[in-house]
Write a structure and sequence with these properties.
The protein has 135 residues and is mostly helical. Helices cover 76% and strands 0% of the residues. The protein folds into two domains: 73 residues; 35 residues.
C-alpha cells in the first residue's frame, strides 16, 4: 500500500458518522439470490423448451460417442475377415472328404425328397402352405 491509499480512506466518512455502509453479500444471501434466479429462469417456457432440446441433443451425443468408442475398440474389418469355426470346419470337410459318386448323390436326393414329402403330409404343413399362398 502506498500513501495515496491511506489518504483516500481518510476522505471517506467514518462508519459511526451515519454515512452509507457497503457490505458484501454473505454466502447465504448469495445462495438465496442464485436460487431465486434459477426459479425465475426455469419458470420460462422458452427456457424449458431449450433445456429439453439440449438434453435430447446431449443424449444423442453421448450415444454417438459411445458407439464410436465401441467401434474403435473392435476392429470390425478384422472381425469380418476372420472366418468362424463353423466356416473353417466346412472348408476342412470339403478338402478332406472324398467326392460323392453319382449313386451317392441320387441316394441323398431321394432321402431329401422323402423328407419333404413326409413334411408335406403333416397337417401343420398344409396350413402353412395355405397361408403362404394367401399373401
Amino acid at each position: 500500500m502506498n500513501r495515496s491509499d491511506f489518504s483516500a480512506r481518510a476522505d471517506a466518512p467514518p462508519p459511526s458518522s451515519g454515512g452509507p455502509i457497503e457490505h458484501a453479500l454473505t454466502p447465504l444471501d448469495s445462495l438465496l439470490h442464485d436460487a431465486m434466479m434459477w426459479r425465475a429462469l426455469n419458470s420460462s417456457l422458452h427456457v424449458t423448451e431449450l433445456l429439453s432440446e439440449w438434453y435430447e441433443w446431449y443424449q444423442r451425443r453421448q450415444a454417438r460417442e459411445t458407439s464410436a468408442a465401441i467401434n474403435e475398440a473392435a476392429n470390425w474389418l478384422k472381425v469380418a475377415k476372420t472366418p468362424t469355426y463353423a466356416e473353417l470346419r466346412r472348408r476342412r470337410d470339403v478338402a478332406t472328404t472324398d467326392p460323392l459318386t453319382p449313386e451317392q448323390i441320387r441316394t441323398r436326393a431321394a432321402a431329401s425328397a422323402a423328407d419333404a414329402a413326409s413334411w408335406a403330409d403333416h397337417p401343420g404343413a398344409k396350413w402353412i402352405m395355405q397361408r403362404g399362398r394367401g399373401r
